[in-house]
Design brief:
The longest helix has 16 residues. This protein is an alpha/beta fold. The radius of gyration is 25 Å and the shape is globular. It has three domains: 178 residues, 3-Layer(aba) Sandwich (Rossmann fold), CATH 3.40.50; 185 residues, 3-Layer(aba) Sandwich (Rossmann fold); 31 residues, no CATH class. The protein has 14 helices and 20 strands. Helix 10 crosses helix 14. Strand 14 and strand 15 form a beta hairpin. The protein has an eight-stranded mixed beta sheet, sandwiched between helices. A five-stranded parallel beta sheet has the order 2-1-3-4-5, with helices on both faces. The chain has a three-stranded antiparallel beta sheet with strand order 15-14-16, with no helix packed on it. The structure holds flavin mononucleotide. Flavin mononucleotide binds next to helix 5.
């Protein structure tokens, strides 16, 4: 852990005293620690303690002569940022993009290739508040790692969730992330699409599918832990990888198509794993009582009629466009078949190869997904059938082998 630079942020929770132990352990393990504290944090832990432990002045103000650019420079300086304890107030401010003190301003300047950890600590009602819950979700989707909270006796006398994770466990996670940095980086960059598209009907309704992101998240985690640069382009509210990677949200067919195009034309990717479940159709218009409503329609359509009609227009397959966005990538496409015989499955796989110029096709059958089946069979094709695997972990290993063989 020697020589790593840690930006240690503290907000105003009663658990702030526990940060002293964690800071001390980081320093004893050779880290350089710079603390940043909110005004409220200093009600709970003194500057003398923090400065004594780190040998550095605690940073609390944005406007300090000689340190005016600290809100940017400290991000560049640090290898990792940890906010522990994180109050409900600061979590909600970070998720809203508010930069009204040095701690929150630094977050707005955060560069996402560096880990940002948040260890929440609060009363269980504050933790369960919809604002806090949705802020944590939002921060997670941006790539912040939200550490779990403990459960038990809280300072307010209640029993419940929201207790700061044990400092030794926070230390272990920081150590793990920093040690991972030392591993030689695999230079391949991979774009993974995940989840189902949402096709708007009106301002409050949409058509979607059952995709959960489970397969894509597991594949992403395999590549992240093997040191690849992974970008996870995903639908809202689906399963996210546990590992650190760039995350970008899409909603509709159109927004996914635009995001794939933008990523492939603005960055160098080596491979695309296109696992998103893309709608074959988007809603063009809705007919209610002989009146035509063109989509997008931002209001709510009347729902008093017995029948309404949706006019759907066919979407061009994104998978067939990927190689035109970037010729030099390895493309893995997915084919979900529906209870078909081997011959018919093969026909569908071959059609996908032909239309998309994919390098690999992973086929699985909907019958595998029924009844909460945990064992999913996947067949991997590279023009001809290469192998069959029993679960998504094996599938990820197989894909990695194939990518490396083509490098
Ligand atoms: C004794 C005491 C304990 C508190 N503990 C917590 C806490 O554990 N978590 C929390 O989110 N807020 C807690 N608060 C409320 C925060 O201090 C308050 O929301 C403050 O504005 C947070 O400021 P900051 O986020 O800028 O640090 C506590 C307040 C008091 C008076």
């Amino acid at each position: 852990m020697s020589n790593y630079k840690i930006l240690f942020k503290i907000s105003g929770s009663i658990a702030a005293y526990k940060s002293a132990y964690l800071i001390s352990k980081l320093v004893q393990n050779g880290c350089e620690v710079q603390t940043v504290a909110t005004e409220s944090a200093l009600e709970f832990i003194g500057k003398a303690t923090l400065e004594g432990l780190t040998g550095k002045q605690v940073i609390t103000d944005t406007f300090v002569s000689g340190g005016m650019m600290s809100h940017i420079n400290l991000v560049k300086w640090a290898d990792l940022t940890i906010l522990a304890p994180a109050t409900a107030n600061t979590i909600n401010k970070l998720a809203a993009g508010i930069g009204d003190n040095i701690l929150t301003s630094l977050f707005l300047a955060h560069t996402w290739e560096k880990p940002y950890l948040i260890a929440p600590a609060m009363n269980m009602w504050m933790f369960d508040h919809p604002a806090t819950k949705s802020s944590l979700e939002k921060l997670k989707s941006w790539g912040v790692e939200i550490l779990p909270t403990g459960e038990g006796y809280l300072a307010c006398g209640d029993m419940g969730k929201g207790k700061l994770l044990e400092p030794d466990l926070i230390f272990n996670r920081i150590e793990e992330l920093l040690e991972n940095k030392k591993k030689p980086k695999n230079k391949l960059s991979i774009l993974i699409t995940a989840g189902g598209t949402r096709e708007d009907i009106d301002g409050v309704r949409f058509l979607t599918n059952l995709s959960t992101g489970k397969t894509a998240a597991a594949i992403a985690d395999h590549f992240i832990s093997a040191g690849y640069n992974v970008t996870y382009l995903h639908a809202p509210d689906i399963i996210l990888p546990k590992g650190n990677c760039e995350k970008i949200i899409f909603t509709s067919y159109k927004s996914l198509d635009e995001a794939v195009k933008k990523e492939l034309s603005s960055k160098k990717y080596n491979a695309v794993i296109h696992n998103a479940a893309v709608s074959d159709y988007s809603v063009e218009s809705v007919v209610v009582a002989d009146k035509i409503y063109n989509v997008p329609f931002s209001e709510k359509l009347p729902s008093s009629e017995e029948n309404i009609s949706l006019n759907l227009k066919r979407n061009e397959k994104i998978v067939n466009k990927i190689k035109s966005y970037s010729k030099d990538i390895l493309l893995t496409a997915f084919k979900l078949t529906a209870n078909q015989n081997e011959e018919r499955k093969l026909e569908q796989v071959n059609k996908l190869f032909h239309d998309s110029s994919a390098d690999f096709v992973v086929q699985n059958d909907i019958s595998n997904r029924m009844g909460g089946n945990v064992q999913q069979m996947f067949s991997v094709y590279g023009k001809e059938k290469l192998t069959e695997v029993k679960n998504v972990g094996e599938l990820a290993v197989e894909l990695e082998k194939l990518f490396l063989s083509k490098k």
